[in-house]
């Protein structure tokens, strides 16, 4: 690095390096320098040890900033450093303080790109919904009191689950900001999460665990309404959705796990299906009972694409809610998609199927169970329990395999 007196005349005439960049240090103000690149870019910098580390602060580009202005900026920074202030951290903090909730959310999406699409959709539902008036607020301007007040308002107008989830979305964004944005010393630029106020005040709403299942005495009426919806409404989506809903009941799969099942993950010869993408990230292979094989063979006759439960609009049955609403109204039995999974588990327990078998069938994990970690999963061992569960539903629903012969 060359030493010289940095003036306007010097900067105008300075030679460009043959490659890379070159630095010219001022012989009057220690640490003040001009950086010149092979492309002709010129910028003023200040080099100084901060917290025992040599740091370089860019003061501005020439000629957008003059030599005199750059020198004054350098002197200002040197004065701050002399009094124990880290100007780099101060600048980073000032920039971070301008970031809005929506800007941080965009960074969240970019960095956490491996999350499921439905997670992003759910987050934006809240950000564009009851948190919409906060989207353009600076993250530092959302206070603990604001969070507590908004949570209370949501509790008065929505369910406890809705109010809590909205605040969990906000908290997740703050937790991301805390770890993502740091100063040059590794300190978080957003160390405080205002949603913590809800825990401090014990204000999180209690969310009653849903216990709804389709009771045994309701199953026949439910199945008869299902078959009527399938064949007598004339709606193609109902025809597919009817088989899909029964498939959920007889497998205990989650809504999207069954909806996105593809034919290349179906082995009718072996009698099994494979779910590679599950909620707990553990792939699941399930044996098929006789009714499940019949359903799949039936759907194979109507195959239009790679998905078992196909749809002309979205390729797979992405929006089965209309069919579910129709069935609840026509059968008089209120249920949700997850109620079908809960009914499957309840029936399995009533048949005295082992807890380990049930866990494997529904892909539940129990990290505190040491013994479970030593048991090697084999889906063939689940074939008999799966058939026993289906046999129960066959009897209670009055399911006939002839129901799945093409009409």
TrEMBL record:
Family stated for the protein in its record: Belongs to the 'phage' integrase family.
Q: Single GO molecular-function term?
A: DNA binding
Per the UniProt record, the lineage of the source organism begins with: Bacteria, Pseudomonadati, Pseudomonadota, Gammaproteobacteria, Alteromonadales
Q: Which InterPro entries match?
A: CB (IPR044068), DNA_brk_join_enz (IPR011010), Integrase-like_cat_sf (IPR013762), Integrase_catalytic (IPR002104), Integrase_DNA-bd_sf (IPR038488), Integrase_DNA_bind_dom (IPR025166), Integrase_recombinase_N (IPR010998), Phage_Integrase (IPR050808)
| Descriptive protein name | Integrase family protein
An example GO BP is: DNA integration
Q: Enumerate the spans annotated as Tyr recombinase domain.
A: 206-387
This protein's species is Thalassotalea algicola
Q: Where is the Core-binding (CB) domain?
A: 96-178
The domain of life for this entry's organism is Bacteria
């Amino acid at each position: 690095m060359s030493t010289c007196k940095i003036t306007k005349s010097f900067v105008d005439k300075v030679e460009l390096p043959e490659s890379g960049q070159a630095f010219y240090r001022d012989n009057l103000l220690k640490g003040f320098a001009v950086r010149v690149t092979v492309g002709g870019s010129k910028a003023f910098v200040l080099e100084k040890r901060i917290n025992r580390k040599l740091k370089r602060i860019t003061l501005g580009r020439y000629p957008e900033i003059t030599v005199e202005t750059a020198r004054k900026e350098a002197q200002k920074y040197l004065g701050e450093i002399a009094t124990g202030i880290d100007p780099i951290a101060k600048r980073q903090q000032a920039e971070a303080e301008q970031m809005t909730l929506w800007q941080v959310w965009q960074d969240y999406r970019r960095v956490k790109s491996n999350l499921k699409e439905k997670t992003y959709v759910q987050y934006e539902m809240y950000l564009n919904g009851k948190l919409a008036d906060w989207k353009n607020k600076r993250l530092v301007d959302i206070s603990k009191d604001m969070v507590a007040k908004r949570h209370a308002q949501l509790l008065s107008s929505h369910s406890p689950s809705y109010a809590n989830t909205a605040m969990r979305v906000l908290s997740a964004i703050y937790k991301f900001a805390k770890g993502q944005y740091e100063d040059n010393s590794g300190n978080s630029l957003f160390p405080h999460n205002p949603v913590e106020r809800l825990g401090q005040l014990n204000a999180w709403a209690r969310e009653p665990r849903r216990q709804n299942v389709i009771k045994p005495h309701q199953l026949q009426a439910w199945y008869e309404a299902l078959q009527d919806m399938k064949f007598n409404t004339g709606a193609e989506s109902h025809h597919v959705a009817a088989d899909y809903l029964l498939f959920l009941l007889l497998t205990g799969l989650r809504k999207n796990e069954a909806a996105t099942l593809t034919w290349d993950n179906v082995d009718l010869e072996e009698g099994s299906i494979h779910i590679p993408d599950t909620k707990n990230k553990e792939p699941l292979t399930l044996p098929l009972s006789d009714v499940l094989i019949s359903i799949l063979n039936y759907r194979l006759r109507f195959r239009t694409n790679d998905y078992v439960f196909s749809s002309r609009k979205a390729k797979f049955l992405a929006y089965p809610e209309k069919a579910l609403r129709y069935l609840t109204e026509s059968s008089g039995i209120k249920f949700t998609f997850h109620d079908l999974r809960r009914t499957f588990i309840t029936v399995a327990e009533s048949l005295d199927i082992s807890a380990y078998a049930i866990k494997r069938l529904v892909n539940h994990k129990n990290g505190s169970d040491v013994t479970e970690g030593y048991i090697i999963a084999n889906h063939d061992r689940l074939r008999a329990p799966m058939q026993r569960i289906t046999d129960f539903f066959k009897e209670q629903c009055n399911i006939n395999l002839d129901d799945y012969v093409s009409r």
